[in-house]
């Protein structure tokens, strides 16, 4: 009887693996081949149009990171990443706390709040480019209609306001995802904990500080990792709204790699920068994984 049960269980596992395996193989090939090719290009001199490869060691890395604009790209990437992650996380947390209430019409409000995230990024980018347009944009038009024409600005054509303007648009597009992730975590917390704390005299701040925040901390860490990687790899919105301009004022690593590869046709340098970003991402996720494993072991002890 036990042997038959074991055979049945093994058959079920093998059947499941058989169904999943083709998809896994395709995904691995789709990820592995470009990754291997990128690493190969980063250490070679590429002769177009036949893509003849000649090993040159670390020359592509030196060439890419010796360019004068690299310092501006690094600065822009840091500013973009820190602002995007921090503001999205704060707005998402505040929105999740509001959406976690039981007031009338909250479901409709949740759907409305989620809409910016559901709109295709190209559509959102073009919409914001129109809003920020200097002559006929919504913001400048509203300012002029209110008699505040002196405040009208070339938002995307000025180096001092272009990057902040895109960061505002990027925050509007992305914070609903953070909100929904944190809201899901909040709704998974037991109401008994809140009721017990309220009986003991805890106020709203105490409930958030000692129940909500510790309860959703694992999800916050996951969202933090996902948002950081997403911000570093951003491309679409900046490319549509400014193309990295004016004068490189909004160029981050994603656009820098694109320009090296498809404008300068320097695939070796573009691959070298990509390898550095991939390495940073892998190290970041590895550190996060080790930290989570350590916390689990300490909790079990």
Description:
The structure is a single chain. The protein is mostly helical and about 300 residues long. It has a domain at about 70-250: MetI-like (MetI-like fold). Helices cover about 75% and strands about 5% of the residues. The protein has helices at about 1-40, 60-65, 70-100, 105-120, 120-130, 140-145, 160-185, 190-200, 205-230, 235-240, 255-260, 265-300; strands at about 45, 50-55. A two-stranded antiparallel ribbon has the order 1-2. A hairpin with a 4-residue loop joins strand 1 and strand 2. Helix 3 (about 70-100) packs antiparallel against helix 9 (about 205-230), helix 4 crosses helix 7 (about 160-185) and helix 7 (about 160-185) crosses helix 9 (about 205-230). The longest helix has about 40 residues, at about 1-40. It is globular, with a radius of gyration of 25 Å. The two termini are about 40 Å apart.
Alpha-carbon Rg, integer: 25 Å
| Strand line-up of the largest beta sheet | 1-2
How many angstroms does the end-to-end distance come to? 39 Å
CATH class designation of the domain at 70-250: Mainly Alpha
Strand tally is: 2
Derived from helix and strand composition plus strand pairing, the structural class reads: mainly alpha
Helix coverage percent of residues? over 70%
CATH architecture of the domain at 70-250: Orthogonal Bundle
Low-confidence stretches: none
